[in-house]
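Query structure, 153 tokens:
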């Protein structure tokens, strides 16, 4: 068997190329993580905007469900102010859970935290007088379609 001697300069070049490749992989992973964090931030901003909208609806005594989902502003006249506020606050909680689910799916929330959130979501699902609101939200949420059939809720 013949021994091949490798020049020191070749080793330096080889290690340099490995370093550059490793750096590129690292930069790529960092860019991917930054994109996920930016998307989660955008989702959080949208949730905050909905909170503002729901708050202004509460101040005006307008039921968000009636004006947005049912497209009937007069329908909200059938509710007392406390019922309107309760229904709007219920939607605010659902927006929070939608945002939480998005963060969980992006890997930004640990499994144990998400499971605790599902237990808390069960409380809202079990409010029978609000079930129609949640069922309407299940039609358009980013949640998996089978979440409403989950053993957790």
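Result returned for the query:
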């Amino acid at each position: 068997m013949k021994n091949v001697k490798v020049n020191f300069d070749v080793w330096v070049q080889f290690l340099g190329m490995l370093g550059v490749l490793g750096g590129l992989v690292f930069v790529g992973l960092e860019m991917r993580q930054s994109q996920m964090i930016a998307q989660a931030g955008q989702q959080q901003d949208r949730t905050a905007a909905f909170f503002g909208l729901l708050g202004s609806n509460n101040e005006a005594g307008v039921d968000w469900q009636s004006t947005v989902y049912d497209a009937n502003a007069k329908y909200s006249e059938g509710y007392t102010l406390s019922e309107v506020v309760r229904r709007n606050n219920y939607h605010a909680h659902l927006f929070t859970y939608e945002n939480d689910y998005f963060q969980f799916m992006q890997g930004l929330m640990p499994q144990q935290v998400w499971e605790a959130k599902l237990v808390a979501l069960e409380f809202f699902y079990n409010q029978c007088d609000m079930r129609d609101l949640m069922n309407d939200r299940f039609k358009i949420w980013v949640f998996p379609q089978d979440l409403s059939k989950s053993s957790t809720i």
